[in-house]
C-alpha cells in the first residue's frame, strides 16, 4: 500500500525518526519535522500528563508558525508514542490529550487497541503500531491500524529476532496497510533497501541518538561511536521483555555478562516493570541497535537528514545505472 495520502506530500524522505525512551523530546522532533521527516517522542518522556500536554502545545504552535512563515517548505507532521499496557496508568489520559490537540500520528506499543484507533480516527489522525512478529501484526490489522512497524532483528529498544526480509513479507501476508521497517537503518541506501523489500517507510532510531538535538548524554553518544554490532546484546534483563542494549553499559551496570545470552539461565519473570522502574534502569543501561557499526559522528538533524537525502538519491541513481540503463 502507498504512504497515506495525508502524509505522502509532507515528506522529503520516506522516513520516521523513531520515538526513543528518555532520548526524544520536542527539540529532536521539531528538528526532524523542519527537515521533512516525521519527528516523534514517547508521551512517557514527560513525567506527567500536564507536561506531555505542554509538549503537544509546543509542537502544534511551532509547526503551525513554521508552515505559515514558509508555505513552500516541506514540513512533516509529528508522532507521539503511547504505551498501551497496564503498567502505564497514564495511557488513557494521554490518549485524551492526543485527541484534544489532534496529534497527527499516534504510535502504539504493547497493545493494539481498537479504542485507540477509533479515538485517533475520530479527528483524522493515523495510528501506527509496532510489532515483532506476524501474530501481533494480525491483531493490529484486526484493530484497524493504518500502519504496522516491523521491528526486526537488530533494532534498538524492544526488538524482535526475525530477519527483516521475512518479517516484512509475513506482515504483508496479513496486512494491506502501510508497513514501516525498523532495524539497523542508518544510511540513505538502507531506506531504499527497505522499500525494495516491500516496506513503505523507514523507521530509524539509533542514528538519531547521535544528533545535537538528542537528549542522550555525551557518554552515551561516545559509546555508540565505539560500538560495533557484536556489542549489542538482546536480553530481557533490564525491562522484563527482550530489548537490545550495548554490552559496555550492561557491564558498567553490573549485569552478569556470562549469563545474559543463555536462555533460561536467569529467571527474570514474565511481568513487565512499571514505567518508573524501567526509566530508572534505562538511564544507566543504554539501548542501541546493531546499526551502531555505521555511526561515526555526531551531527545536527539538519546535517544528518541532508546526508541521508544525498545517500538515498545516490543509491537510487547507482542502482538504476547498474541494472536498468540501456
Can you describe what's shown?
With 326 residues, this protein is of the alpha/beta class. Helices cover 40% and strands 14% of the residues. Helix 6 runs parallel beside helix 7 (164-174). The model is unreliable at 262-271 (pLDDT under 50).
In oligomeric terms, what are we looking at? single chain
- Share of helix among residues? 40-55%
What is the N-to-C succession of helices and strands?
Answer: HEHEHEHEHEHEHEHEHHEEHHH
Instruction: List how many beta strands DSSP finds.
Output: 10
Task: Give the terminus-to-terminus CA distance.
Answer: 30 Å
Q: Kindly name the structural category.
A: alpha/beta
- The strand line-up of the biggest sheet is 1-8-7-6-5-4-3-2
Biggest sheet details: 8 strands, parallel
The gross shape turns out to be: globular
Tally of separate helices: 13
Radius of gyration: 19 Å
- Uncertain segments are 262-271
Average pLDDT level: 92
Please outline what is shown here.
It is built from 13 helices and 10 strands.
Features:
326 residues, alpha/beta, eight-stranded parallel beta sheet, two-stranded antiparallel sheet, 13 helices, globular
Helices and strands, with pairings:
Blueprint: H1 5-8, E1 15-17, H2 26-34, E2 39-42, H3 49-69, E3 78-83, H4 91-100, E4 105-109, H5 114-121, E5 126-131, H6 134-143, E6 147-151, H7 164-174, E7 178-182, H8 188-196, E8 201-204, H9 206-209, H10 218-226, E9 232-235, E10 243-246, H11 247-252, H12 275-282, H13 301-323
Parallel strand pairs: 1-8, 2-3, 3-4, 4-5, 5-6, 6-7, 7-8
Antiparallel strand pairs: 9-10
Helix pairs in contact: 2-3, 3-4, 6-7, 8-13
Amino acid at each position: 500500500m502507498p504512504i497515506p495520502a495525508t502524509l505522502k506530500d509532507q515528506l522529503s524522505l520516506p522516513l520516521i525518526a523513531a520515538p526513543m525512551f528518555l532520548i526524544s523530546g520536542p527539540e529532536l522532533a521539531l528538528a526532524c519535522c523542519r527537515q521533512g521527516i516525521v519527528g516523534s517522542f514517547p508521551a512517557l518522556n514527560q513525567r506527567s500528563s500536564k507536561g506531555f500536554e505542554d509538549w503537544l502545545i509546543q509542537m502544534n504552535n511551532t509547526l503551525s508558525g513554521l508552515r505559515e512563515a514558509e508555505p513552500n517548505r516541506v514540513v512533516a507532521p509529528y508522532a507521539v508514542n503511547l504505551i498501551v499496557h497496564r503498567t502505564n496508568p497514564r495511557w488513557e489520559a494521554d490518549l485524551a490529550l492526543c485527541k484534544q490537540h489532534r496529534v497527527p500520528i499516534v504510535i502504539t506499543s504493547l497493545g493494539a487497541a481498537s479504542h485507540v484507533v477509533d479515538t485517533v480516527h475520530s479527528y483524522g489522525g493515523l495510528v501506527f503500531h509496532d510489532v515483532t512478529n506476524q501474530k501481533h501484526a494480525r491483531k493490529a490489522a484486526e484493530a484497524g491500524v493504518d500502519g504496522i512497524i516491523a521491528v526486526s532483528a537488530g533494532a534498538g529498544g524492544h526488538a524482535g529476532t526475525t530477519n527483516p526480509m521475512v518479517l516484512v513479507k509475513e506482515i504483508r501476508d496479513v496486512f494491506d496497510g502501510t508497513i514501516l521497517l525498523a532495524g539497523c537503518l542508518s544510511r540513505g541506501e538502507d531506506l531504499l533497501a527497505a522499500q525494495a523489500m516491500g516496506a513503505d517507510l523507514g523507521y530509524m532510531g539509533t542514528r538519531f541518538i547521535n544528533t545535537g538535538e538528542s537528549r542522550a548524554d555525551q557518554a552515551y553518544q561516545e559509546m555508540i561511536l565505539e560500538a560495533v554490532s557484536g556489542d549489542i546484546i538482546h536480553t530481557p534483563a533490564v525491562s522484563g521483555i527482550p530489548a537490545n542494549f550495548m554490552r559496555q553499559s550492561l557491564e558498567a551496570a553490573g549485569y552478569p555478562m556470562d549469563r545474559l545470552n543463555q536462555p533460561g539461565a536467569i529467571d527474570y519473570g514474565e511481568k513487565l516493570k512499571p514505567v518508573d522502574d524501567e526509566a530508572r534502569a534505562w538511564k544507566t543501561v543504554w539501548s542501541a541497535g546493531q546499526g551502531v557499526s555505521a555511526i561515526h559522528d555526531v551531527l545536527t538533524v539538519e546535517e544528518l537528514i541532508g546526508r541521508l537525502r544525498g545517500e538515498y538519491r545516490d543509491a537510487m541513481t547507482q542502482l538504476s545505472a547498474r541494472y536498468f540503463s540501456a
